[in-house]
Amino acid sequence: MTETQPTWSEAESARYRAAGHWQGVTFGARLRQAGAEHAQRVALVDGDRRWTYADLDAEADRVAAGLRGLGVERGDRVVLQLPNCAEFVLAWFGLQRLGAVPVHAMPGHRSREIGHLVRLSDAVACVVPDLHARFDHRRLMSDVRAELGPDGPLRHVVVVGDPGPYDGFVPFDALRESGGRGPSAPVSDSDSADPDPGGLALLLLSGGTTGLPKLIPRTHDDYAYNARACAGVCALDTRSVYLAVLPLGFNFTFACPGVLGTLMAGGTVVIAPDPSPQTAFALIEREGVTLTSLTPPLVPHWTDEAASGSWDLGSLAVVQVGGARLPEDHARRLGPALGARVQQVFGMAEGLINLTRLDDAEDLVCTTQGRPASPDDEILVVDAGGRPVPDGTAGELLTRGPYTLRGYYRAEAHNRTAFTPDGYYRSGDVVRRLPSGHLVVVGRIKDQINRGGEKIPAVEVEEELLTHPAVTAAALVGVPDERWGERSVAFVVCTGTAPGAREVAAHLASRGLAGYKAPDEIVQVPGLPLTAVGKVDKAALARRSEG
């Protein structure tokens, strides 16, 4: 891999290649093959816009040439912070065709997170929308660029839409058009992709439990297998139509099997601009969608809307639910409501993906979070001393395999504790394994709140709470919530009256934090309880909030 970091051993790599998991093909080359094999088949749909596989292949050339004209080179990192729109896919494949590396960011990230990603990855460019959800991303990028200064790595900002009055911001459409002009504009096959399929293909974000997110390096070989293995479990083929409801930057939406798995099967990807059931159901009717993926908070909304009986959802065969644990009663209602098979998905951007199978018994589908996608996924469930526990006993999930990372990007110190000496990733998830191999998620060791699939690092929010003039101590805990799976409660020690949730949210936003990290509830306490070793007793705080 490019960048110095732990990777698979030569023996493991040879074994994965011999098993057919790693096929030695870059994403730029894969799209070239698909453009020839499925030339006139519809690959991508966004509103009234449609691209065949041949169109998508040609667009990748245009975007790659336009980026190259800006000065973006093979190996350069480029942050993609786009909402659900076709331009995310076009930019992603354009970067792959050029051999540059997309860094997935979320639409809700703000200056603190984007600045961190640019610095950590040395990104030379960012691709953003003009306005999304009434937020001006151009202003955000202007602020980030000013903070990084003239000597910072960020040289280019590409805007989908109106670039506004900002000096040097490039419209995405103009970049495409510049890449499509002239006889030498298209990128040739020999110049199209990183020559090493084991090289860095993209960077995903970790959930981040100790502050700002870490970057997860994925190779062409391992990430393609991630998508293909999930596509195999979901039985995708050229007739499959996947509806992307959740953000495209999520690993779940993009490759489990998601966008990549569908395209690698020769199917069609349909992009939903928002996750509302009304928007999604209209697209399911119009496009004959066969598969989609949700997070648990969306499930009751979709179930309620389906009960209206106003929609023809007959094409929908499978509904995946992941990102957080799905309550059993919601799982049992969802399938009959939509007339589709429910599939639970439990995984991580670091690698391992577990899915219930389409032929699993109903009880397994409704009460477990699936089993590994690959026969070569290795699973250990261990106690606090690292000793394996029997099936049915809760313990920490450790894993390694053909698509699970061996080290975070530029995080040598963290890697020493995040992995065992023999390469197992310490997930921090507490699970029980059944004799069938299915996993039941019990909780987490890591200090992280999972609010409807959004991972909130408690330490980061606590540090920012302390910047409020009234707050002298703070602890953020997650408590069970029927809608979100978990909601975040901030226990604060204050001088005077505690600020309300709205004031705290505004303060955190002014500090550059994403909106979803703001606490759902603020509770003023005279002091924070401590454990016997002097640490904040968050278990006691959680019990207090639940009670």
TrEMBL record:
SUPFAM superfamilies: Acetyl-CoA synthetase-like. It comes from the Bacteria. CDD domains: 23DHB-AMP_lg. Residues 460-535 form the AMP-binding enzyme C-terminal domain. Residues 32-409 form the AMP-dependent synthetase/ligase domain. InterPro entries: AMP-bd_C (IPR025110), AMP-bd_C_sf (IPR045851), AMP-binding_CS (IPR020845), AMP-dep_synth/lig_dom (IPR000873), ATP-dep_AMP-bd_enzyme (IPR050237). Gene3D superfamilies: 3.30.300.30, 3.40.50.980, Luciferase, Domain 3. PANTHER family: LONG-CHAIN-FATTY-ACID--COA LIGASE, NONRIBOSOMAL PEPTIDE SYNTHASE PES1 (EUROFUNG)-RELATED. This is (2,3-dihydroxybenzoyl)adenylate synthase. It comes from Streptomyces olivaceus.
